[in-house]
Amino acid sequence: MPPKVTIEEQGCRGCTLCVDVCPVQVFELDAARNLARVVRSEDCIGCFSCFYECPSQCVAVADVELLRPFHRIEESVALVEKFLQSKSATRTITTEDSAEAYKDVSVRLMALARAVTETMGRGQKAVGRKAGAVAAEHLPEMYEEVGPDKVLAAMQQRFRHSFVFDYKVDGGTFLLDFHPCALSKVVEGLGEKVGEAVLCHLFHEYWAGLLSAFTGAKCQVEVPMVGATCQMKITAS
């Protein structure tokens, strides 16, 4: 049985990205209605290019199994090293290397955020959420955890070098306290206000996208507090 592709017409903005990216021409543009249509669903190969490309998140692909890249799990890397009796290549990072990398990444992140805004306008949040969903595919160990508590504990471990946070789970609500968010210094250093910068909005949606993927629920995000502690309130439905 081939994958089943559907488009939620109410969300389609007629951008033609799904039409352009599909390698087997499953979609066509209905010019009169300015909507994409599924015209050759039986040809779908389940590559998910349309799903990841759609800025409105209105394309769905069902009846296909996603294969997780388990070779990316840190424990698997350690197992391979033990099997080969050879350590992975490493390099010592100096303080100067770290400072230069931080400056470079800061400028690139803000430039990326501004480019997204100029390109997508109000669709910028959808880009952040989609980025989270795409990134989730490269963190397969999270899918092995059952329940939001264990998922968030695994995320603490995975992101410990970049984002230090505490969490509390109350039913379908997840409160994440960052001390502070690692992007706060980047935003402040470039003269923007924490919590209001485009980069902040993208990051909030990115985490909502991650948790949506890991928990299988649709997550909405609010930011009740910014500053020395930045808090995200993510509600699953």
**How many extended strands?**
8
Mean pLDDT level: 86
Secondary-structure element sequence? EHEEHEHHHHEEHHEE
What is the overall silhouette?
Answer: globular
Fourth CATH level, the homologous superfamily of the largest domain: Trafficking protein particle complex subunit 3
Give the CATH topology of the largest domain. Answer: Muramoyl-pentapeptide Carboxypeptidase, domain 2
**Main beta-sheet annotation:** 4 strands, antiparallel
Structure description:
With 237 residues, this protein is α+β, with helices and mostly antiparallel strands. It folds into two domains: 4-62, Alpha-Beta Plaits (2-Layer Sandwich), CATH 3.30.70; 95-236, 2-Layer Sandwich (Muramoyl-pentapeptide Carboxypeptidase, domain 2). The chain is built from eight helices and eight strands. It has helices spanning 17-21, 49-53, 74-84, 95-120, 124-136, 148-158, 183-189, 198-215; strands spanning 4-7, 27-30, 35-38, 59-62, 165-170, 173-178, 219-225, 230-236. A four-stranded antiparallel sheet has the order 5-6-8-7, with helices on one face. A two-stranded antiparallel ribbon has the order 1-4. A two-stranded antiparallel ribbon has the order 2-3. Strand 5 and strand 6 form a beta hairpin. Helix 5 packs across helix 8 (198-215). The longest helix is centred in the middle third of the chain and has 26 residues, at 95-120. It is globular and about 55 Å long. The protein starts with a strand and ends with a strand. The mean pLDDT is 86.
